[in-house]
Amino acid sequence: MDILSLDSSHIWHPFTQAATAAPPIAIRSGLGASLFTADGRELVDLISSWWVTLHGHAEPAIAAAIAQQAQCLEQVIFADFTHEPAARLAARLAGLLPGGLERVFFSDDGSTSVEVALKLAVQYWHNRGQPERRKILAFEGGYHGDTFGAMAAGQGSGFYQPFRTMLFEVGLLPYPATWAGDLDVETKEAASLAALDAWLDRHRPETAALIVEPLVQGAGGMRMCRPVFLQRLAARLRQAGVLVIFDEVMTGFGRTGARFACLKAGVAPDLICLSKGLTGGFLPLSATVCGAEIYDAFLGGGFERAFAHGHSFTANPLGCAAALASLDLLERPETAARIAALEAGHSTRLAALVERSQHLVRPRLCGTIAAVDWAEGGEAGYTAAIGPKLKRFFLERGLLIRPLGPVLYLLPPFCLSEDQLDRAYQAIEEAAATLS
């Protein structure tokens, strides 16, 4: 049987309605910013294959690091044991992150890194003799993953209706989404902070933590906020003694123009969640990082104070080796230059795109992430009918652009060329003229 027949018989694809979806596209290989299909076509990957691919597909340095590690140690239980790649990676992350974030808990993916952060926050207060502090704050439109704790924190995204009665209560704050030329941003930020103040007036003694995607809400529609908002938010939470969790699963490792969004925002969170680009997109791995104060709250003579959480592949040596190689690449001057060039390229092209098309509105940019909204009427949100039409339009032109409903965004690997970026913007302009 061929690949598509086997797939049709046995595979259940994510975020897909199998009854109506077109057959999946079989990919044979990848190189740089391109994917190559089994039937010989080239697709320019403008979404980094779900935001994971940093330096390009089949990046030789990362592939070589994995191959070398596989000949030495492929896996070992991480309870009672350790190994060099994990220790070196934890130290590297601690050296790159701000504000004393130095204790690294490894897990498997973005959702589990969020689960770990939420559990750490709640147990931190429990271990300190304040078990009543277990309420979590989050933002409307936020998305933090698909496990139950992550779903609860992201229930403002609207993805989880079948599970609503099973999710713990989360306080939801309005998100002050902004864009270029937004004249109401100060009003929206003030309203969000006022909602936070009102929540803290009622629930401060019961609140454990707030979780936020710093600077950019990803799956919620690439909605962006200003660094000054995060600074004001964090100041209020610090004064109230509420922990700050930054979900940098998507925004980490250069995506926002800085190595981490927290550095660009000028805010050091209490916990940070990392995944996706951590291994350059090669292998599943995630990390939840906190400071000494949180770590020390779990120390004691009895196991009841310990963090009883783990995964079979925690700190997998292959994943850690890939991450170390990816960080080597990320810290090279040429990578910083590529990131800056991508941001500059987005900036000029995005402005021109919106100026030429009345159907594209609310342009926004943060580092290598650019987004614009389709202004035509119709259903809004992730299931908007325009989304699949746009996706097909771009695929026919050899471009992997996967809109979030009416939101068109580009989040490419750092190796994307000027010509490839031009092709993307030309296709978006063509789509606005053709499909409107």
Give a written overview of the molecule.
The chain has a domain at 64-330: Type I PLP-dependent aspartate aminotransferase-like (Major domain) (Aspartate Aminotransferase, domain 2). Helices cover 39% and strands 16% of the residues. The protein is built from 14 helices and 16 strands. Helix 9 (261-265) links the parallel strand 10 and strand 11 (271-274). The model has no long low-confidence stretch (mean pLDDT 96).
Return the CATH class of one domain: Alpha Beta
Number of strands: 16
**How far do the termini sit from each other?**
41 Å
Question: What value does the average pLDDT take?
Answer: 96
- How large is the radius of gyration? 22 Å
User: Per CATH, which architecture of one domain?
Assistant: 3-Layer(aba) Sandwich
Question: Strand fraction band?
Answer: 15-25%
**Helix fraction by DSSP (H/I, runs of at least 4):** 25-40%
What does the overall shape look like? globular
Reported for the largest beta sheet, the result is:
7 strands, mixed
Individual helix count: 14
The CATH topology of one domain comes to Aspartate Aminotransferase, domain 2
Low-confidence stretches: none
Structural class: alpha/beta
For CATH, the homologous superfamily of one domain is named as Type I PLP-dependent aspartate aminotransferase-like (Major domain)
Question: Reading side by side through the largest sheet, how are the strands ordered?
Answer: 4-12-11-10-7-5-6
Quick overview:
The protein is α/β, with parallel strands linked by helices. The protein is built from 14 helices and 16 strands. It has a seven-stranded mixed sheet with strand order 4-12-11-10-7-5-6, sandwiched between helices. Strands 1-2-3-15 form a four-stranded mixed sheet.
